[in-house]
Amino acid sequence: MSAELDQLRGTIAQSCRILARAGQMRGHLGHVSARLDAQRLLIRCRAEGERGLAFTGPEQVRLVTLDGEPAEPMDGHTAPKELPLHSAIYRARPDLHAVAHTHPAAALVCGLGGIQLRPIFGAHDIPALQMALAGVPVYPRAVLVHSAALGAEVVKALGARDVCLLRGHGVVAAGSTVEAATVRALTLEELASVHLALAQAGRSAPDLAPDELAELPDLGPAFNDRLTWQVHAANDAACEHGARSSEWLR
What we know:
- The chain has a seven-stranded mixed sheet, with helices on both faces.
- The chain contains eight helices and seven strands, in the order αβββαβααβαββααα.
- By secondary structure, it is of the alpha+beta class.
- The protein has helices at 2-21, 83-92, 105-113, 126-134, 148-158, 178-200, 210-214, 221-249, and strands at 31-35, 40-44, 61-65, 98-102, 138-139, 163-166, 170-175.
- The protein has one domain: Class II aldolase/adducin N-terminal domain (L-fuculose-1-phosphate Aldolase), CATH 3.40.225.
- Helix 2 (83-92) crosses helix 5 (148-158) and helix 6 crosses helix 8.
């Protein structure tokens, strides 16, 4: 179990770095978690000397209960105040095993501007199209989700989806794995970015026509999750290697 825990800590840390470098986590704001069992989860925590999500290491990923109690020595780390957001999703959705909460700019502006994320493009990003076809729910309150009651409200808004836009706040993306949750967050922001660019240009686009939809293959989320994660993981590894090389050269 120790080796599995260490591997999962590393994956959560890498997810934080990927999302931060993609512009989804500003400074120290945002967190990623993974359910370990019915009572415990691993989550990115904070401590003195915080350097930001882009520099997350496995040591900042700590084991806590769904109620926020330490399940291992915390070594000065504290769980995020929005732990109830993660806990509520895990309690309500046994199919979801990882949650990413981020603060991406395009999704934020679309939520504030009431811009509905519709299926307006096709082969540019088929997973984003499918996300739009399923519908992106919106939680309408710009609050810090710091209690079980507020977590339950977000869960209600999320419904059977795996992404939800938190108006005036950010997004929550979930999946069966950390990799899947990470890719959902990236896909949602791509969808929002296209809509925001059109709105800024004073233009709009119709929903994709049925005959165009019929020509687009559904390769399945697992295929997209694996390849998208691999690309971002490779970029992260290159960034980490570059940072270590720079430190060595100094």
